[in-house]
Amino acid sequence: MIEFKEVSKTFATKDGNLNAVNDVNLTIEDGEIYGIVGYSGAGKSTLVRMLNGLETPTSGEIDINGAKMSTLSGKELREKRQKIGMIFQHFNLLWSRTVLQNVMFPLEVAGLSRSERRKKAAELVKLVGLEGRENAYPSELSGGQKQRVGVARALANDPEILISDEATSALDPQTTDEVLDLLLEINKRLNLSIVLITHEMHAIRKICDHVAVMEDGQVVEQGTVFNVFRNPKQTITKRFVNEEVDPASSDTNVVLDDLIQNYPNGLLIQLVFHGDQAKLPIVSEMIHQFPEIQVSIIEGSIHQTQEGAIGSLYLQLLGDETGLAGAQDLLKKMRVETEVIHHG
Amino acid sequence: MGNSSYFAFDQVDWNMMGSSTWETIWMTLVSMLFVAILGVLLGLLLFETSGSNSLAVRGLNWVIAILVNVFRSIPYIILIILLLPFTKNLVGTIIGPVAALPSLVISAAPFYARMVELAFHEIDRGVIEAAEAMGATKRQIIFKVLLPESMPALVSGATVTTISLIGYTAMAGAIGAGGLGNLAYQEGFQASNNTIVLVATVVIVVIVFAFQFIGDTLVRHIDKRTL
Ligand SMILES: Nc1ncnc2c1ncn2[C@@H]1O[C@H](COP(=O)(O)OP(=O)(O)OP(=O)(O)O)[C@@H](O)[C@H]1O
Ligand SMILES: [Mg+2]
User: Fold this and answer.
1) Which GO terms describe its biological process (chain A) (predicted)?
2) Which of A29, A67, A106, B177 is 20–30 Å from A276 (CA)?
């Protein structure tokens, strides 16, 4: 278990003090994937760099499985660091070493014998799916393959935690998904806690259990990914969630504006489905009960999170007032979250 | 004395030419050995002490940087003269290849130290930080990250330094250190034997080319950044 207790970090810069991290409290349970999302400069990197002592907190306390990080230094700190794997946006591989030699680096640091190193590194290369490329140099690999080497290297000393600082930000969407799948697989297989920093809500939704949203050094919202996606409270969270749930939202808005112009009397609503609701025939039930209402579907999407599906559907309903009110009642009865966008 | 004076090859004492060539190569290689060791140590010290928060460390960096810059700016021919008493104390003589070593090393080591420092600064900070995050000690970072990652730059810097050392040995030769510079000056210039000057020149050019070739080949072999 990782605990941040009232952690703050202030940098002294030429323009005065800068509060990069401000009074953060977080608990990360064993074996979960914890996402930290926020825009550039929010303090995400600074926060996780305090986990392995690359930065020291100005105040507050960080506990990792009972060990207070602030009390560690010298040899103890280095030994603890061996148990905290980290992967980076720019991979940070040694270009003078082959894939296998890169993976052996942390094992050399830990002082394993030559034969143990070879054996362990070969297993890890296999685990991340790079068998056959052991003797390639990083310059011969694609971005996704380089990050696989990064993952193998981070896992070399059987870490208690894996930190991923924007590890997919330099990759294309498909390769991002491959690396995320790999992280999820490792998390499941080794029951390894992962702290995943990102500015893409997609990565959070795809593999994280919990998420914390950071803004200006503070955690402004946290909870299970499912709950935060379903019911984002802060403006910044809503922005992140909308980017992800509804990437075409600007297109949708254009269409919605058009519809409002052309059918000023119509009802425009957004439905949000959770979990098994997404699989129920809610719309057809509504059409069935209120045949006099005209229904057009404007946009719909569905996304899978670790806890279940979240669907979103934009509908236009045309008809008389009693019909429209009845339809809305029905939706309420079926516990579908409904947001009225326009009611003429 | 016409241009044919350049081609009187029967006037050349080839034994002497051979031993002078060997002296030049010997002076270059032995001094380069010391320059490499001293340069890497100084460069590492400059690199490790730069950008520190501690006042003492910054002071140390400042002192080394000043020393390096001072010795780098002294013209070699003046440095030899300046170091004559020091050389005499150290090696017991001011004549011959061994006597050239102190001034050669002292003039080239700061030059190489700067290149070493630069090479270390060119390593991505993230890579060094990754090693730190894995729990590497300072020593491990030096031997497993800094040196191997900057090796191509260190070797090409060493090549450039070696070639300028060849030039310095010729100057040292003119004031009695031996080698091809000495031969060209005494047997060539003072005895008006143009052929000796020409042959000595050609041999020096060949030596320079050879070192350049070896250096380039080595760099190509160890540089894995672009394949
Ligand atoms: N060593 C440092 N010295 C001074 N200021 C720093 C230092 N490191 C970070 N900062 C500042 O702290 C703030 C938070 O930086 P941080 O790198 O943690 O942000 P981030 O959320 O990781 O951003 P990004 O998504 O761009 O990586 C920024 O304003 C940054 O300029
Ligand atoms: Mg960052």
Assistant:
1) amino acid transport
2) A29
Percentage of residues in chain B having pLDDT higher than 90: 48
Model pLDDT, residue A244: 64
ipTM of the complex: 0.85
| Domains by residue range for chain A, with CATH | 2-234 (3.40.50.300), 252-343 (3.30.70.260)
DSSP state, A68? E
Which tokens is A36 given?
């930290």
Which domain covers residue B17, as residue numbers? 4-226
Q: Which atom of ligand 1 sits closest to the CA of residue A55? A: 1
Q: Do B136 and A109 touch (CB under 8 A)?
A: yes
CA of residue A21 to ligand 1 center, whole Å:
9
For ligand 2, the distance from its centroid to the CA atom of residue A44, given in whole angstroms, is 6
- Return the number of CB contacts < 8 Å for A and B: 69
pLDDT mean by block of 10 residues, chain B; 227 residues: 73 81 90 95 92 85 91 88 88 83 91 95 94 94 95 95 91 82 79 82 92 94 82
CA angle (A44, A163, A120) in 5-degree steps: 165
Q: Which atom of ligand 1 is nearest to the CA of A12?
A: 4
Number of structural domains found in chain B: 1
- Residues paired with residue B137 on neighbouring β-strands, in sequence order: none
CB contact under 8 Å between A94 and B132, yes or no, is no
Question: Looking at the predicted structure, is the pLDDT value of residue A300 above 90?
Answer: no
What CATH number is given to the structural domain containing B48? 1.10.3720.10
DSSP secondary structure, A257-317, as one string: HHHHHH-TTSEEEEEEEEGGGGGS-HHHHHHHH-TTSEEEEEEEEEEEETTEEEEEEEEEE
Per-residue pLDDT tens over the stretch A61-79:
999 988 888 888 888 889 9
